[in-house]
């Protein structure tokens, strides 16, 4: 009997977790699991601001992480998907394009920075949504002399972490943060007070209610025509999903995310699952989940367990997708843990200071540990694929007349 072929595209937090969890849920004789990724080691995306600020991160090679699991790592870039023919096209360095056939596809290609079409951003701004981007920023900051100006555009979680990390590691620089609204306006009063205190202590100049409309070589221009100095501009105004899905017949939302049900299964193509930033998944209050590690990990669990259940005749999981807190590092010594409702609205409770920094560090370490231990401490229970699935996998599909 032919094995049921599962291909996972992308080995960020969600893709790597899903691949490992599937390997521990399904019998190796019944399935083949291929994880496609362009890089040979795991990127801790939640630490890119640390990498940019000059800190070295622990190497995490996939060859070691997936040794003995049954997951096959394919080092290649995904260049095409044919959801009708159930194939993906990949290209490795120096090799011709290769076509891989699948029975079940897990789309976890994630997201990149979002320039929002602001002129000059691509040419002059730096981003920390990827390791190459963080490394380029790291190199630029290292050559920036004392007194140089760094302007971080975007007052969300990524912007706050970038501005505080850079200001703490380089107190000789003039660091500014441009926020479209008020600083931390989504936080509780306690959270906002602590954020202002930390920014003031680090000497960060905060420009509130400031929309940046153009980026130049050494300035950013705001909506009212003001030119803010910026020897280095760091752009952190949100994420845009990988564009590959737009070239497929998959049903997408306005954001380009793949529309999924509560098991992370595509609503248009039942053999495709989308997880993490690539998925338009609904959380508590029937609101779309935001692009974040906090959203991505539960979607990876949900997809892997749903695929395993459908293949083995088990019970489908319907765990609610909800939030508990927002964890923000503010340099290495300060942090902010904002507790939230299930649908991600701040409540009055917040943890601040050194304890919050330690909490955030545990969250980051736990996220990386979860990639290498995808069942989160649960016992391995490899189940056999049902005869019905075996037949559907091995028999050719009917072709309409």
From TrEMBL:
Record has Lipid biosynthesis as a keyword: no
Keyword Flavoprotein: yes
A GO BP annotation: aerobic electron transport chain
One GO molecular-function entry: NAD(P)H dehydrogenase (quinone) activity
Assigned keywords, A-Z: FAD, Flavoprotein, Oxidoreductase
Coiled-coil regions listed: none
Name of protein: FAD-dependent oxidoreductase
Family: Belongs to the NADH dehydrogenase family.
Organism per entry: Streptomyces xanthii
Cofactor(s) required, per the database record: FAD
Domain of life: Bacteria
SUPFAM superfamilies: FAD/NAD(P)-binding domain
UniProt cross-references to InterPro entries, sorted A to Z: FAD/NAD-bd_sf (IPR036188), FAD/NAD-binding_dom (IPR023753), NADH-Q_oxidoreductase (IPR051169)
Domain FAD/NAD(P)-binding: 5-304
Record PANTHER family: 64 KDA MITOCHONDRIAL NADH DEHYDROGENASE (EUROFUNG), APOPTOSIS-INDUCING FACTOR 1
């Amino acid at each position: 009997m032919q094995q049921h072929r599962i291909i996972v595209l992308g080995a960020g937090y969600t893709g790597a977790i899903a691949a490992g969890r599937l390997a521990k849920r399904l019998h190796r004789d019944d399935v083949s699991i291929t994880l496609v990724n362009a890089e040979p080691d795991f990127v801790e995306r939640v630490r890119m601001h640390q990498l940019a600020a000059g800190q070295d991160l622990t190497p995490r090679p996939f060859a070691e992480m997936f040794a003995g699991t049954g997951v096959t790592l394919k080092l290649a870039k995904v260049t095409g998907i044919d959801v009708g023919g159930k194939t993906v096209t990949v290209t490795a360095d120096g090799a011709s394009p290769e076509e891989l056939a699948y029975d079940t596809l897990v789309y976890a290609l994630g997201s990149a920075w979002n320039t929002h079409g602001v002129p000059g951003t691509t040419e002059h701004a730096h981003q920390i949504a990827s390791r190459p981007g963080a490394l380029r920023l790291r190199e630029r900051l290292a050559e920036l002399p004392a007194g140089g100006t760094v302007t971080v555009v975007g007052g969300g979680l990524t912007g706050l972490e970038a501005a505080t990390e850079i200001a703490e590691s380089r107190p000789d620089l003039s660091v500014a943060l441009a926020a479209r609204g008020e600083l931390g306006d989504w936080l509780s009063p306690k959270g906002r007070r602590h954020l202002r205190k930390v920014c003031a202590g680090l000497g960060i100049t905060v420009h509130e209610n400031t929309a940046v409309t153009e980026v130049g070589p050494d300035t950013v221009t705001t909506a009212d025509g003001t030119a803010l100095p910026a020897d280095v501009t760091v752009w952190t105004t949100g994420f845009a999903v990988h564009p590959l899905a737009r070239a497929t017949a998959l049903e997408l939302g306005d954001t380009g995310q793949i529309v999924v049900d509560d098991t992370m299964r595509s609503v248009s193509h039942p053999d495709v699952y989308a997880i993490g930033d690539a998925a338009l998944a609904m959380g508590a209050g029937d609101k779309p989940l935001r692009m974040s590690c906090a959203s991505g990990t539960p979607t990876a669990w949900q997809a892997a367990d749903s695929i395993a259940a459908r293949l083995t005749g088990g019970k489908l999981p319907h765990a609610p997708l909800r939030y508990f807190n927002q964890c923000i590092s503010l340099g290495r010594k300060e942090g902010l843990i904002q507790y939230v409702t299930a649908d991600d609205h701040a409540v009055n409770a917040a943890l601040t200071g050194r304890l919050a920094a330690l909490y955030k560090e545990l969250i980051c370490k736990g996220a990386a540990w979860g990639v290498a231990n995808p069942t989160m401490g649960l016992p391995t229970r490899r189940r056999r694929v049902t005869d019905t699935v075996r037949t559907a996998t091995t028999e050719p599909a009917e072709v309409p007349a």
